[in-house]
Design brief:
The protein is an alpha/beta fold and about 425 residues long. The chain has 2 domains: about 90 residues, no CATH class; about 325 residues, Alpha-Beta Barrel (TIM Barrel), CATH 3.20.20. It contains 14 helices and 10 strands. The strands form 2 sheets. Strands 1-2-3-4-6-8-9-10 form an 8-stranded parallel barrel, surrounded by 5 helices. Strand 8, helix 8 and strand 9 form a beta-alpha-beta unit. Helix 11 runs antiparallel to helix 12. Bound molecules: L-rhamnitol (RNT) and zinc ion.
Length: about 425
Amino acid sequence: MASEEMIKKAYELAKEQYAALGVDTEQAMKNMDQVAISLHCWQSDDVGGFETPDAELSGGGIQTTGNYPGKARSIEEMRADLEKVLSLLPGKQRVNLHAIYGDFKGERVDRDQIEVKHFQSWIDWCKKLGIGMDFNATNFSHPKADSGFTLSSKDEETRKFWVEHLKRCRAISAEAGKQLGTPCVHNTWIPDGSKDTPIDRNGHRELLKKSLDEAMAVDYPKEHMLDAVESKLFGIGAESMTVGSHDFYLGYAISRNKLICLDNGHFHPTEQVGDKISSCLQFIDQVLLHITRPVRWDSDHVVTLNEDVQLIASEVVRNNYLDRVKIGLDFFDASINRVGAYVVGTRAAQKAFLIAMLEPTSSLLEMEEAGQNFERLAMLEELKTKPFGAVWDYYCLQNNVPVAEDYIASVQAYEKEVLSKR
Ligand code: RNT
Ligand code: ZN
């Protein structure tokens, strides 16, 4: 464990090195206040939810692997885990719920029956913690999703059921945003697609458009809720056609003034979400990010500080897009300590943003515009080994959260005292 004195000393040296490049480390740390990351509650229970009888994740090719002990089995356990995670993160974050996480109190409430009252205790909990809440309709893990089609289903009863679900989720979101004084981002992702080559791609897309229009007919104030739609290339079991493709949703978002949700596990592995942000934002107001780590496929591994995540953060920061980009995470790993997984992944995303804020962007841009591409490349390489860690440590110290690897012991203690007893 580094002493406070060591952390401060290292920071002072780092501050000088960055200052020599024209970078103000104090300002960079201040700017981190604008980075609110929405913690996806589903990491703590492998996307199970609190519906009765106990729901299991199924549908659409999303999957958790592993059975590490200690997953959250109730709202109380989930909130305790989230509070633990929040206590180990610098800055102020948000929480992201799925509709299956209602406070149903043992009652069987189907998706087309959920109401604000089932989420009031979550809203109250967020209020108590002083954090915002985001929300998601759950269009999977349900008998009415077993056919592989929900909002784009040709079975009218099924389609209507999911339209009703989405309507209710939006109403709940608007109320949460109103009560909490910060807009609740409602994200729609559906698993709809087909394993083998379909004949009628168009028919399902027409139905999806119609369903979204029906479910989004009510306009809520932007201060209360914002709609996002999440595209995907494919899911396991839906390899040949995904109804909600990127082309589909980008068109929908542009024409309906919605947010597009970019999940970096949802594109061809050589495509970069970091490259898409400045394209989407030419035509739509805001983007929602699902930051994840796809390993060979949309595997939802715990986020690490890799080049994909760095490009995403750098593009947001370079272009001053923090007020137009909502940041969510989307990973679920059941093979390691789940609370630890949360902390590693969220901190990795935060680090990427802080690194982006420590970039001497204007001098790099000058080089670029002067055609000094060797100089640009050299600087980008040198920046990788500047003493970022010293600034990050100091930022954690300032925020009264464990510095560097010190959070490992805290997660271990929580495992011993809480998780291992579940
Ligand atoms: C699935 C999407 C979606 C889900 C969550 C649970 O591929 O990424 O965002 O992971 O809604
Ligand atoms: Zn996602």
